[in-house]
């Protein structure tokens, strides 16, 4: 669920206006969030809980986005329109959609309250609220994104992604900076993928000798899995992309085209870099509506669930799915697909009084597009060990992986995953094991 921080005053006013409704709902399964995780898991339960034993989805937004395409949109390789559909078209038709936002969760009473004052009683609640983008955590960033002259871009929002390729095309010389924040992010490969696509464009336009490409990441590694990190270092070295580790963006001065960074190894050390193009991956974290519920969250504000069963550690009729949970996996669409099968079976076992027999292994995947027609398909588990599907060495750049990223994965998303039929590639991986030789 995309969350907009409207500020405390606005929320209070909304509450005063709408709480007079006092409309009560009751359901077997309540899903908070209509993003990738929410729609996917709701679709799985529709045949088990048809009306009147209904599923309720609480989601305020009217448009649903396939966000993994935002990288290709920013690189000029896909159209923005291909990434979105009306929310009404993707929420399961037999589920009850409340176009609203949950502002209070009373877990001891199996009840939530929405911003309009609706009260929802649930038997099972699945929290799938996603991550919130905290643009304002970086001083100057919001104003810079609004200023066309500042040349600041981000693929991380539908409001900003459409300007990214235009700004790439405007850049003719100078320094192009790409950043990764000191927080968890969704699709952690995306901040460097857009750097590769921009670099490829400038190279093909014969502008590359005039432009220094720099990737500043807050992480101590270029990628969390060593096998793929080694491959990405080679990509950067071969294309003269400078990578600075543990370097965090802390301020943007758009009027002067300056970015201020902090050395995380020595936090007192701060320095300014001039830029001609700046791509920012904003800080992210759990939504404000979730963080305030201390009985539900861990110290960082994420829904506190068991990393294997996805069941809440305290409230056994609450489960979490996707980016808002405390599971230490990479936050990707592929992770949600794998988690959704585990969560579905565990909920059904729990309702039947049976022990939970399915466990999430931390599977996640990141198609690391390095250029048009080239992609490293990273797949790995909780231990950051490769968990590859195909009978080839996936640390290499492949055309077929790029085609899967551009065409196959969107098809799977709209036609299978959001309808509850795609659980990730585990079955495919098992079938292809026979061909895995000399890897």
What does this structure look like?
Keywords: FAD, Flavoprotein, Mitochondrion, Oxidoreductase, Quinone, Transit peptide. It is found in: Mitochondrion. There is one protein chain. It is built from 12 helices and 21 strands. It is of the alpha/beta class. The longest helix has 19 residues, at 333-351. Strand 14 and strand 15 (258-263) form a beta hairpin. 27% of the residues lie in helices and 23% in strands.
Helical segment count: 12
> In percent, how helical is the residue content?
25-40%
Please report the distance between the alpha carbons of the first and last residues: 39 Å
Low-pLDDT regions = 1-19
| Global mean pLDDT | 94
Q: Biggest sheet: strands, sense, closure?
A: 7 strands, mixed
Structural class: alpha/beta
Oligomer: single chain
Which descriptor suits the 3D outline?
A: globular
